Amino acid sequence: MARILTGIQASGKPHLGNILGAILPAVQLSQDPKNESFLFIADLHSMTTVKDADALKENTLAVAAAWLACGFDTEKNYFYRQSRLAGYHTELMWYLNCLTPFPMLANAHSFKDKSDKLSDVNAGLFTYPVLQAADIVLYQANFVPVGKDQKQHLEMSKDIAAAFNRTYGEAFVLPEPKIDENVMTIPGIDGQKMSKSYGNYIDIFLPEKQLYKVIKKIVTDTTPLEEPKDPDTCNVFALFKLMASEAQVAEMRQNYEGGNYGYGHAKKTLFDLILEKFAKERELYNYYMENTQELEAKLKAGEEKAELIAKATMLKVRELLGFID
Q: Are the C-beta atoms of residues 224 and 263 closer than 8 Å to each other?
């Protein structure tokens, strides 16, 4: 059985890009009987950017609710908050820190992307890859699903774990990245990659009126209603085809090319599709956010289960370090 680990930051409510690009593919992997999935909410990592305790707690609940709404099975798999097992994660991080060369961290994308303004870089951001390595090897994960932009960090995790194994003895499974070459890049309402940092995301869990307002903000050109339009250059069509059936995509294309079909019509069709496709998810998300005690119960049960594995790993690590007889 392959052990697959996924961490998601508690930087805000997951949006359509997160759901299509990461959550649904991860849930599908977790449903394979050959896999054992570990899903954790990386609330310690989130502290590098989120400085409000109430916001961090709310974000954590929103992330948990979104994953459950999208079908993650907490009975079969592992579901936990990083912070509730922080003693294991941060202790292991310190041991790995002592084997991690400075140039490796200085070359990490997470640091280099902000290194032109070092006043904005905190120590947590600089050592982010070491905590990430601890998150992974603590649970002896075989595979970590990542996008191509995260491949470097996964290679660093593997190198750091290998350095420990060489220095002290075999403690860790060496993780491998699981990169889906077909992973979708989800466009935002302005055509750029959908991202909270760009403010161009679609929150599918919004109330209907608010959601429709966001959909209506999708950027389009000024082609008049009566003229034919090119669907392949339209942001609305780009989003629609990621979720629609082949027949629905073909019909939408025909409408664009036939004329007398405005972008307002297309946006309404996209809105209706989102409501239809995510009706169950929206209902479940709202249920969990209104019944947070159930979220807490599932997370605590998952944390108790995950702690058994974390504790076993740390006992082995402490023995190899000579800290216990």
A: no
Could you tell me how far CA 305 lies from the centroid of its own chain? 22
Q: What is the pLDDT of residue 185?
A: 81
**∠ at Cα 61 (147, 278), nearest 5°?**
65
> Residues with catalytic annotation?
114, 193, 196
Residue 21 has pLDDT above 90, yes or no: no
Give the Cα separation of 178 and 199 in Å (integer): 28
Sort residue 58 into left (φ over 0), alpha (ψ -120 to 50) or beta.
Answer: alpha
182 pLDDT above the threshold of 70: no
For residue 112, the model assigns a pLDDT of 82
Q: How far apart are CA 154 and CA 159, in angstroms?
A: 9
Predicted local confidence at residue 179, as pLDDT = 81
End-to-end, the C-alpha distance of the chain in Å comes to 32
Report residue 13: phi and psi, to 5°.
Answer: -65, 135
pLDDT in tens, 104-140: 999 998 888 877 788 888 999 999 999 999 999 999 9
Burial, 158: exposed, middle or buried (Cβ in 10 Å; 0-12, 13-18, 19+)?
A: buried
CA distance 138 to 288: 29
Tokens of 19: 């759901």
Residue type, 226: E
Q: What is the DSSP string of 273-295?
A: HHHHHTHHHHHHHHHHHH-HHHH
User: 150, exposed or middle or buried, with CB in 10 Å at 0-12, 13-18, 19+?
Assistant: middle
C-beta separation of 65 from 55 below 8 A? no
How far apart are the C-alpha atoms of 223 and 226, rounded to whole Å?
8
